[in-house]
């Protein structure tokens, strides 16, 4: 391993000199072999690497069923089935909670669609790790849980509109990337008011989520994230308040994964 990543501040927990290895911010396993070059990497301690890996395993087993990216069919056929055969607990969770519905999109032919039980809390926890990793990789800013608030949610239309309002605040720099032809798409920006105030939206495998109690007709693909220092009072007295209102009032929970019948 390169010394570049050893003995550094962990990108996820922010503990100095604790990193033992490099970690791909988005695990290589999400990508087909030919799409794995130049993925973002950051220093990580052993505990954060282990905790994040457990969340990645769940996402790797479940999200591909709702994938819409270019290589979704190949990924499902060649990667997911063998992975589920090795993880019987997750396989049984999917089988027990799966339901089938008939859907017609834009007046087209009716098709059978499966909705799968989906632990959105685990996926949002993974996006929380990814958010902190991207902040380090792109902006060289650490947002550790001990000193920085990080929240990730799926949003309804109101939430997405709030997010666009936040983007209109003064930003110092921004980034937009598409990794693996739609496997992981994201954009982020860093506020000029405070370097730890960052905004992100991201889509993993283009997975379609829907069926929430709050917005039963909504289908979402993107998660939205905001970071800011604990106790921060923004200079304009606006950005932090808008962010907190957004998270409290416009989040979608209890979503289900929508895709083709897997079994």
Number of helices: 6
Helix-strand string: EEHHHEEHEHEEEEEEHEE
Structural category is alpha+beta
Largest sheet: 6 strands, antiparallel
Mean of residue pLDDT?
Answer: 81
Q: Kindly report the spatial arrangement of strands forming the biggest sheet.
A: 6-7-8-11-5-12
Radius of gyration: 19 Å
How many beta-strand elements?
13
Percent in helix: 25-40%
Beta strand %: 25-35%
Basic shape:
globular
Distance between the termini: 41 Å
The parts where pLDDT drops under 50 for at least 5 residues are: 248-257
Structure overview:
The protein has 263 residues and is of the alpha+beta class. The chain has a domain at 120-257. The protein contains 6 helices and 13 strands. Strands 6-7-8-11-5-12 form a 6-stranded antiparallel beta sheet, sandwiched between helices. Helix 1 crosses helix 4 (120-139) and helix 5 (157-167) runs antiparallel to helix 6 (239-249). It is globular and about 50 Å long. The N and C termini lie far apart (41 Å).
Question: Any chance you could write out the topology, listing elements then pairs?
Answer:
Layout: E1 21-24, E2 41-44, H1 46-62, H2 72-85, H3 88-97, E3 99-103, E4 111-116, H4 120-139, E5 148-155, H5 157-167, E6 171-179, E7 184-191, E8 198-204, E9 208-210, E10 219-220, E11 223-229, H6 239-249, E12 251-252, E13 256-259
Helix pairs in contact: 1-4, 5-6
Task: Give descriptors for this structure.
13 strands; six-stranded antiparallel sheet; alpha+beta; 26% strand; 263 residues; five-stranded antiparallel sheet; 6 helices
